[in-house]
Design goal:
252 residues; alpha+beta; eight-stranded mixed β-sheet; 6 helices; 8 strands; 32% helix
């Protein structure tokens, strides 16, 4: 169940982390068509190029509750899309897409800037800084950042068996609701058959920390079709994020 039901609003423009950020609270059908070529180009260059993936996921990304476009000196730097959901009666932020041009991968403040803004706006929308955050990834570099994230304690970690009771209760419900039980493992932690071809052109973006790479190799048997579901609660530090913009409330 989607938490956000408001009509698309005019974008908010802010400066953060050295980037110009366009914050879209839903895109109108017309704006979706305007941004589709840019999204498709970056998706193909940075992650995966396949018509089946485009057909299934481009409408989801363009229809996201929160669509962030980051640029620097007029050049595109990243696209980050999120959904606000209710799962098992709990508010959940679902991070559905994070892209940057290949030449900017590993570049400084892009990911923390986008993540910080997304969490702050979501806290405003939910009316609380305490919610769950979920995403799936097979990217070892992303896994490393998730483990170090100061605002969310994501599971699983290297100690695969340890978890948070709330996360354990909601993981399977989130998995079934968002991705479909036919793609989920029994424990709701890994996914099967989600990419029609190998992402990143078959070149996995390995991390310099071999412990991260070993974790991914151990829990994802095939980087071409499997991914891990990361889910966890926000930490108290999320309340200290700078308030960059106000989430528009839907009209009564």
């Amino acid at each position: 169940m989607s938490f956000w039901s408001g009509a698309p609003r005019s974008p908010a423009l802010v400066a953060a982390g050295g980037y110009e950020v366009e914050i879209n609270f839903g895109l109108s059908p017309e704006r979706q068509e305007e941004l589709r070529p840019e999204l498709r180009t970056m998706l193909h260059a940075a992650f995966i190029d396949h018509p089946d993936y485009d057909q299934e996921h481009l409408p989801q990304f363009l229809g996201a509750d929160l669509y962030l476009r980051l640029s620097r000196q007029g050049e595109p730097a990243g696209i980050f899309c999120s959904e606000l959901l209710e799962v098992g009666g709990e508010p959940v932020l679902h991070l559905i897409l994070g892209l940057s041009p290949p030449e900017l991968h590993g570049g400084g403040q892009l990911q923390p800037t986008a993540m910080g803004l997304t969490l702050e706006l979501t806290a405003q929308a939910f009316g609380t800084a305490e919610f769950l955050v979920g995403l799936r990834t097979a990217n070892p570099r992303v896994v490393s950042w998730l483990w170090r994230c100061p605002w969310v304690r994501f599971y699983p970690r290297r100690d695969w068996g340890k978890s948070d009771p709330q996360e354990q209760r909601l993981r399977r419900s989130f998995c079934d609701q968002v991705f479909g039980e036919d793609h989920c493992s029994l424990d709701g932690r890994t996914f099967r058959g989600i990419y029609p071809v190998h992402p990143w052109g078959g070149a996995v973006p390995w991390h310099h920390d071999e412990r991260v790479n070993a974790f991914c190799r151990e829990h994802i048997s095939d980087h071409g079709s499997e991914a891990i579901l990361f889910l966890g609660p926000t930490l108290p530090a999320v309340a200290g994020l700078p308030r960059r913009a106000a989430w528009p409330k839907p009209k009564a």
